[in-house]
Amino acid sequence: MDELALIRDADNRAASYLAGVADRRVFPDADALAALWAFQEPLPRLGRPAAETLDLLDRIGTPATVTSNGPNYFGFVIGGALPAAAAAERLMLAWDQCASSFDNSPVAATLEKLAGQWLLEALDLPRESAVGFGTSATACGLACLAAARRSLLARKGWDVDRQGLAGSPAVQVVVSETVHVTVRKALRILGFGLDNLIIASTDDYGRVDPARLPRLDDMTILCLQAGEVNMGEFDPFIPLIQAARAVGAWVHVDGAFGLWARLSSDAVRLTAGLDGADSWTTDGHKWLNTPYDGAIAICRDARALADAMNSDAAYAAADPFAQKNLTLEFSRRARGISVWAALRTLGVDGIAGMVDRHRALARRLADGLRATGYEVVNRVVLNQVLIRLEGDEDGARLTRIRKAAEASGELWFGPTIWRGRPAARLSISSWRTGEAEIDHAIAVLASLRETV
Ligand SMILES: *Cc1c(COP(=O)(O)O)cnc(C)c1O
């Protein structure tokens, strides 16, 4: 089969998957999972025809997908893929651009620069910031935190690039009690030591309590959150960032999904003061609904990020702000182009509309579940609904209901622990999800509460 026939075959299969995405089981059934054994072939010595490989992938792989690109997926906060963004990615696959610098891809460099400027405008963050497109909020957070430490040390005359960390002035890190595990991971990899992290106490909603903020100084990195994973809440940025700025601490905001609330009609209430921070991370692949994987590192001091992530070499010198100098990745595909496509196609109003719609759907879901006897644990300020059942202290009944929901194929949502007690969490973040899916989820969960 020639190349074009193969690509068309793949496109046809992809289109037929998408055509049925609203009606697919959300979690694969037992037969589809068992069939995955068909992949367990010995590594072939002689290659097989490409068409056969594609056919195997579709035949065995497609039934074993989780339909996270469908409207009935409520796990994590991982969104679907917007048609405009997914279409851009398909074209980009043909281009096979390496988005490291202008030399490697003028179109990628141009569009990612523009996407970066648009993002700063849409999210209303300092326009002078550097914007890097990395693989994940994990990796982008790591890049920002490395830039933070490098800058704080440089202010004390310490060149961490040359001198390393041994014997360096101490940098302390303050994180929220509810900090995301990936921020802890980034700090761990950077060598801060989990035992050395200073924990900021949180209030009943999981927000850092300004009255109990640990002492900060000019060698402190304070990690805050826009959109905590369970409650969906926002730290009170105004007092916290004021306290940090007063002493010269660096503030990093993890807004993997919550940063998009900057476009909500409630942005002021939720995120006021957030733009006073020094660095921010957010994902494209979550609430913006771009395909995996794509995330964004934003750093007010553009030079700080560019110097920390610099990877110029004699054979690969570039603009100091070329993408390869703003993230961990050296070679990568042009992730920023799907961000550009999403922003251009939806426009600011379209994204704001999606965010507000998801927030309204979350409230609808919470009201419906409450009415059928579930306990809703959070205030539902964003797109997260955390549920429990009364008298189900160990969460065993809720787990049975969740497993029954999974087995039904009708919807999927995940488990969590909040304040030491098991709970379940439903997130609404796909452009495909509407009132019909919410009402269906309520009906399924109501019936499972009666029967499981
Ligand atoms: C998902 C998430 C992350 C990590 O993002 P990845 O892109 O999956 O690495 C960090 N913080 C929060 C609050 C998240 O929800």
SSE diagram, text form:
Elements: H1 3-19, H2 30-34, H3 50-61, H4 83-95, H5 106-122, E1 130-134, H6 137-155, H7 160-163, E2 172-176, H8 181-189, E3 198-200, E4 220-225, H9 237-247, E5 250-254, H10 267-271, E6 279-283, E7 295-299, H11 302-308, H12 335-371, E8 375-376, E9 384-388, H13 396-408, E10 414-418, E11 421-427, H14 435-451
Parallel strand pairs: 2-3, 2-4, 4-5, 5-6
Antiparallel strand pairs: 1-7, 6-7, 8-9, 9-11, 10-11
Helix pairs in contact: 1-3, 4-12, 5-12, 6-8, 6-11, 12-14
The structure holds pyridoxal-5'-phosphate (PLP).
Pyridoxal-5'-phosphate binds next to helix 6.
The helix content is 40-55%
Unreliable residue stretches: none
Q: What summary fits the major beta sheet?
A: 7 strands, mixed
- Structural class of the secondary elements? alpha/beta
Reading side by side through the largest sheet, how are the strands ordered? Answer: 1-7-6-5-4-2-3
Helices, by number, come to: 14
Reported by name, the CATH topology of the largest domain is Aspartate Aminotransferase, domain 2
CATH class of the largest domain: Alpha Beta
Shape: globular
* CATH superfamily (homologous) name of the largest domain: Type I PLP-dependent aspartate aminotransferase-like (Major domain)
User: What fraction of the residues are assigned to beta strands by DSSP?
Assistant: 5-15%
Which quaternary structure do these chains form? single chain
Overall average pLDDT: 97
